[in-house]
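Repro case for the chain-ordering regression, as requested:
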Amino acid sequence: GAGVSQSPRYKVTKRGQDVALRCDPISGHVSLYWYRQALGQGPEFLTYFNYEAQQDKSGLPNDRFSAERPEGSISTLTIQRTEQRDSAMYRCASSPTRAYAGELFFGEGSRLTVL
Amino acid sequence: KNEVEQSPQNLTAQEGEFITINCSYSVGISALHWLQQHPGGGIVSLFMLSSGKKKHGRLIATINIQEKHSSLHITASHPRDSAVYICAVLEETSGSRLTFGEGTQLTVNP
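-- result from build under test --
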């Protein structure tokens, strides 16, 4: 596609449920990043992929969060046993080069609300 | 103390004014990004800097690595420039982790 696509755009779930958020980066982009952004705050780094390799997951808050990019293209961020504090905008960005050496292209985000 | 601090947090200007947004950071970096977040929430990359100065249209970004400081300038500001401007640094030690500032909310009135 022409840009970074994320789905779903909005997700409302009950506490304790698992959610999967999808990111479809720009075709051919090497790097893929996941961030989250609470209301009124700046984005917070979660994890980084170089092709299919998850090279940095230091921003994942705990082991309920995981991410994969099995074929080096589409990525899925999974949150297990969701909690209310997980509510945020989850953003994906891709770059044609490795690790922030180039411009970042952001998706529109997936807004997660945990009730 | 945040590793990346922006000032001011909020800025209101009249159309045509020269705008400056500042970013200071405390870690060694290999690059710095300036991002623009629209009222609808979308984020757009404006600049990536590792040294010196870049210009694109009415936007100018500068960085002083020794002083660990960057500025974003907007000349002849316009109401459509109203947005949140975010500074983010690529930490030298991590190689991939981008640390963001809290953002500066700019409102330009006609």
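Ordering looks correct now. Chain B touches chain A through 23 residues (CB under 8 Å).
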